[in-house]
Predict the 3D structure of the following.
Amino acid sequence: MLATKTEKILHSNLSPKEKWEEIDKRTRYYCEPREDRRMKDKLSIADNLMDKLNIKENMKKQIKYMITSEFKNFKELSKNCSNEQIIALMIFYVMKSHNYNLIIEKYKTFTELKLTNKHYMTFTTKLCRYYQNKIPVNIEI
């Protein structure tokens, strides 16, 4: 069955790069564990968004660390947002931590994903709650 799908891809009207990406996606589906595939997809989305926004290398490392180490389950951060929206919110969070004057609605990339300041505020609230639960504060009286 894979051979027939592969043949269809090879004989389609796609560009050579698109053909390679489709075949790569299919082989990854059958060869890699689901968690690895999902992580690679998340990192690929992040790379595409960071390239669109011209993110600096040190901020790219922060974002990739958040995706790979901190938040493997994105549904903890937002149940109603897609992975692409959550990654975009992470990127904006890192951008805003380096420059407080940024406004999410001024970026075409975020407005295309239908993200608003309300989404960002909800995301940061859940982000803070996540870190508070991860490192509980103990007060001795």
About this structure: The radius of gyration is 19 Å.
